Amino acid sequence: xxxxxxxxxxxxxxxxxxxxxxxxxxxxxxxxxxxxxxxxxxxxxxxxxxxxxxxxxxxxxxxxxxxxxxxxxxxxxxxxxxxxxxxxxxxxxxxxxxxxxxxxxxxxxxxxxxxxxxxxxxxxxxxxxxxxxxxxxxxxxxxxxxxxxxxxxxxxxxx
Amino acid sequence: xxxxxxxxxxxxxxxxxxxxxxxxxxxxxxxxxxxxxxxxxxxxxxxxxxxxxxxxxxxxxxxxxxxxxxxxxxxxxxxxxxxxxxxxxxxxxxxxxxxxxxxxxxxxxxxxxxxxxxxxxxxxxxxxxxxxxxxxxxxxxxxxxxxxxxxxxxxxxxxxxxxxxxxxxxxxxxxxxxxxxxxxxxxxxxxxxxxxxxxxxxxxxxxxxxxxxxxxxxxxxxxxxxxxxxxxxxxxxxxxxxxxxxxxxxxxxxxxxxxxxxxxxxxxxxxxxxxxxxxxxxxxxxxxxxxxxxxxxxxxxxxxxxxxxxxxxxxxxxxxxxxxxxxxxxxxxxxxxxxxxxxxxxxxxxxxxxxxxxxxxxxxxxxxxxxxxxxxxxxxxxxxxxxxxxxxxxxxxxxxxxxxxxxxxxxxxxxxxxxxxxxxxxxxxxxxxxxxxxxxxxxxxxxxxxxxxxxxxxxxxxxxxxxxxxxxxxxxxxxxxxxxxxxxxxxxxxxxxxxxxxxxxxxxxxxxxxxxxxxxxxxxxxxxxxxxxxxxxxxxxxxxxxxxxxxxxxxxxxxxxxxxxxxxxxxxxxxxxxxxxxxxxxxxxxxxxxxxxxxxxxxxxxxxxxxxxxxxxxxxxxxxxxxxxxxxxxxxxxxxxxxxxxxxxxxxxxxxxxxxxxxxxxxxxxxxxxxxxxxxxxxxxxxxxxxxxxxxxxxxxxxxxxxxxxxxxxxxxxxxxxxxxxxxxxxxxxxxxxxxxxxxxxxxxxxxxxxxxxxxxxxx
Lengths: 159, 764
Prior knowledge:
The complex is a heterodimer.
Chain A (H helix, E strand, L loop, with lengths): L1 E6 L2 E6 L6 H7 L18 E4 L2 E4 L12 E3 L5 H12 L10 H14 L5 H7 L11 H23 L1
Parallel strand pairs in A: 1-5
Antiparallel strand pairs in A: 1-2, 3-4, 3-5
Helix pairs in contact in A: 2-5
Chain B lengths: L15 H5 L6 H4 L5 E7 L5 E7 L1 H4 L4 E5 L30 E2 L5 E7 L2 H10 L1 E6 L36 E9 L2 H6 L3 E9 L11 E6 L5 E5 L4 H12 L6 E4 L17 H10 L3 E4 L2 H7 L5 E10 L5 E13 L5 H10 L11 E10 L13 H19 L3 H8 L6 E2 L5 E2 L5 H12 L1 H4 L3 E2 L4 E11 L10 E7 L5 E5 L8 H12 L7 E4 L17 H28 L6 E3 L3 E4 L5 E3 H8 L8 E6 L8 E11 L5 E11 L6 H20 L29 E6 L22 H13 L10 H10 L3
Parallel strand pairs in B: 1-12, 10-11, 14-15, 21-22, 28-29
Antiparallel strand pairs in B: 1-5, 2-4, 2-6, 3-5, 7-15, 8-13, 9-10, 9-12, 13-14, 16-17, 18-19, 19-27, 20-21, 20-26, 23-24, 24-25, 27-28
């Protein structure tokens, strides 16, 4: 079947099998950041944004994206760079295989809730598994980013 | 010693930003998509002989290129265990065998142009099995009339006490003093059996390998592996081709934890490529990882611990029964750690010990290497026994340990008589007690809402590399602009060893970390290194880095001497230049680099190897606070504090994250991660749906600190960190659960069901 969608801002038209999963479609179109860690929708590694909302691309048919907009980390580099440097400063990236998924979900979180509490961060990212970091360093990184941003904002407000 | 500029600093990992931004880095990202898809047909039976196997109909599926069965493979038995040759693990595998030995064992290798073709063909292969009775219970495996490996060409290369005609992978007894006599004279003897499961590493990137024939006609292997050199040897033996015909490299690795210290996936595409000449790739599903991976050895550890009434621990008698599953990988070696890395914790007071073990073959998934490597299992048992002793004697478990623990300067008889040169275990305990507020949190607190809070404690040790066996190497060379290249054969699997070793180069060569570029690991280009396992990289390869830098400095001085018209003895290396000691001249590194590339006969590239005669243990204390719901038996981890002595932490950030990650993995093992079998030997927890690794809602709050010691044989005083960190959660949580519920759960995982049933049995 023929589908047409916007992938990271670019129009893409392709002929696919009806059972093609979105993860395989975007990887075939150069989005190597999207990873597969399970077959049971448990790990969160394959998170992409479909019309701005986070979805597990292993559990969405590519056909469902027909006429919609899909964003992967390849298309959101600048938005990610703002906060991932703080995670790097904790050494919490570790092996890196789960990073694109939880970075995408963190982007979604911060768009929905720009100033989340620690518990809100934990709850929102609960579906993003990581086996290396023990999660605490990822939280420290996001917290450090929010503190730095809020401080900069306060500085601006005062100035 | 001069103040350190780079070592000991929380430097950002050199690959951190690219990993966080999702740049292509892993096997599937960096190898061509246009290659054969390889999959493996797996046995539905725990033990069977293949009577016949028909592939002709399957081969008619359009796009199928090859299907291989046991009839097509060489008859060379080998082991997948990534260990220094001759491997302690007996050679007991064929690439494909007529006898299948567990549910998930390989039956056929399929290669096709597309995944769809291979999936379709797999359903069309007709196998006629003669189903045989299986050995599923490790207790009855030894001397069972049913043999897992009856074959005559089975071979043990090392004297590990293995005997395939008795289902034995290994067997040994050692000790010191008369343990029975001391136990007979003890006031208290704690005598129980503790049981741990075949837990999965569950690294986020499953096993995967790409293979192709390079322009020289050699087999080029790109794999997610911790052991490029061992993989080269393993493939050469299995395929029956010269090692020189194989080139193995690893890109970024999406986690390993020991799983990738076994050559799990490499042989399948390698065989396809070698036979067909076509590039090929296999990517394991999560289900394959769960049923045909390389998990922790299930162990049953019987501890008899004798003490006097004042809490002096006088004797430890440890017997371990380890289940290696269908193949021997890491069977003879993991088991040793269950005694040799638990008993020495009590060197302080021990008068006698005995440690014996049997490692058996059974018809379940073969085990392998998993962070902690047997120490985790032994420490769960011995530390739990000590906690039970504290309870029986009414002595605070922290004070009991302070009375008995190993201390700096002691010789550890149960640890091959190695000395504890650097040991801050006492300071770890004191600091952890303070950090955790042990005195307030150890008493059981009824919260008045059906919930109870309680605490537990455990100590741990591990090693740093495999003494007298494994080799670390490093090459350091000067590059055009005065920067350095560091080339290693150790494998950064996310741990950050590339950066840690580069920090050592920066420190030795007195330059910025940005001036050091790292490359590894590649069996053609890297100097020989056993690989990244056994907590070896910082300690063993780090020392090789130090040595290589010393040699390079000598070479730089020799080269500079020609330019400056003096002898190298008149020169000193200053980091940015080589100068005459009398201050009359100098030549910058960049100029030296240019000079080295024109009319030069002095190499500015040094390679050094290092192997250590000792394996200095890191030490650690962990304390946990839980809340237990008495209605449901459910356990919530509230708070985990840990203090670690890893010698000098080379990069405190990375050491901290290693510790936090290990603790959470340990919490998973203790509370959630179960492995059970159907009566036919099929693993029930074959997905992340059933095999529950912790999420970020399951681990409470973590806090980690370091109490440094200085290990004189390590680089900059460093020991290791990678494995020890998984060892404290199981015993600490078991104690906290007992304190809250009155139930000692001695078989992991500690589930709400076990707690509740235990409470009912106690009449609560």
